Amino acid sequence: MEISLKGKTAVVTGAAGGVGQVACEKFCEDGATVIGIDVDEARGAALTDRLRGRDFEFRLVSVASSDEVAELAEYVRGRFGALDVLLNNAAIVRGAPVLETTDEQWDAILDINLKGVFRMTRDLGVHMKGRRGSIINVASNAGLVGFENMSAYCASKGGVVQFTKACAMDFAPEVRVNAICPGVIDTAMPHAFVRDLPDEAAKAAAWANFENGHLLRRLAQPEEIVAMARFLASDAASFVTGAAISVDGGWVAQ
User: Fold this and answer.
1) Are residues 147 and 190 in the same domain?
2) Starting at the edge strand that comes first in sequence, how are the strands of the sheet with 33-38 ordered?
3) Do 85 and 192 share a domain, yes or no?
4) Domain containing 210: what range?
5) Percentage with pLDDT > 90 across the chain
6) Are 59 and 65 in contact (CB under 8 A)?
7) Residue 247 lies in a domain
8) How many domains would you assign to the chain?
9) Are residues 142 and 53 in the same domain?
């Protein structure tokens, strides 16, 4: 299936990460004008260099800041007048047993993973009305099933799934709202998670669990997740809304 985003404007959060970078690149290749946002200025600059010649712009914005998101929304309104695609991809992951999870750890995860999606959707979604737009939220298989020592992360991603369904109702029939629920993706995030474990045996076991938890016995590549985002962003997905789509190598099928 040929995907075209020609003439569409898009905002991608978490643009400096593995999935975000690929999404910015592929959306540009598909013909979209893209604004990528992230808190990592150095990686944002590198992405800008890589996409030089494409219709791409990087902006330093934290989805955890209501003021920064509001300023971004005003900038998008001034530059484009409206918005066609919003990919809510920014997230962090932290693991701890629930009895050892502090208020600060819980709040940090929920503020970015869930409230960040809310802020972006509320402030930029208003510029999508009347555009037959598409909001795509990157949730997780951890939003569909439980994981040991991941209570805050699971709560945040489960919230994204339910938020997606509610927003699909609020935005209908003009704007479609869907969630992608990936398995473990081969990006810096799982590598950092494993690196923080206490010993080599624990690290090896965690990585094996990541791989073997998927029926396909491997991690996802960012391009495999972005392929679904490209579809949902395009008019080819014109009858898809309110869905939580597993792109997880069969993890939740077991």
Assistant:
1) no
2) 56-60, 33-38, 9-13, 85-88, 134-138, 176-182, 244-247
3) no
4) 186-219
5) 85
6) no
7) no
8) 2
9) yes
Residue 212 inside a domain? The answer is yes
Q: 23 or 207, which is more confident?
A: 23
* CATH number for the domain that contains residue 55: 3.40.50.720
C-alpha–C-alpha distance, residues 247 and 42, integer Å: 30
**Residues sharing a CB contact under 8 Å with residue 208, sequence separation 6 or more, in sequence order:** none
Please indicate whether residue 75 is annotated as part of the active site: no
Give the closest residue to 134 by CA, choosing from 1, 11, 26: 11
Q: What confidence tens digit (pLDDT) does each residue in 42-101 have?
A: 999 999 999 999 999 999 999 999 999 999 999 999 999 999 999 999 999 988 899 999
The encoded tokens of residue 90 equal 């920014």
Q: What is the dihedral of CA 141, 147, 149, 154, to 10 degrees?
A: 40
pLDDT, one tens digit per residue, over 174-205 is: 999 999 999 999 998 888 878 877 889 888 88
**Residue 156 in domain:** yes
- The answer to the question of residue 249 being in a domain is no
DSSP per-residue string spanning 126-169: TTTTTTT-EEEEE--GGGTS--TTBHHHHHHHHHHHHHHHHHHH
For residue 34, what pLDDT band results from cuts at 50, 70 and 90?
very high
Q: How far apart are CA 24 and CA 249, in angstroms?
A: 23
Could you tell me if 171 and 208 lie in one domain?
Answer: no
Identified catalytic residue from 56, 58, 153, 231: 153
